[in-house]
Amino acid sequence: MPIHEKSLIAPADLLTTDKLVVDGIDVSGHWNTMIKPRYISDYDPDFQQTIQGYGGGENVHRCWQCGSCTNSCTVYAINTDFNPRYWIYLVNIGLKEELLKDKDIIWQCVSCNKCTNICPKDVRPEGVMKALQHWLEDEGHVPVSSSTKFDEEFTRQCLERGRIEDTEVIMNFFRKTGQDIVALVKSGWLGIMVARMNNLPLLREGRIGAFLARLPILGPLKMGWAMLVKPRTKSWGCTGEVLRQYVEEQKRLARG
Ligand code: SF4
Ligand code: SF4
Question: Does ligand 1 come within 6 angstroms of the Cβ of 61?
Answer without folding.
Answer: no
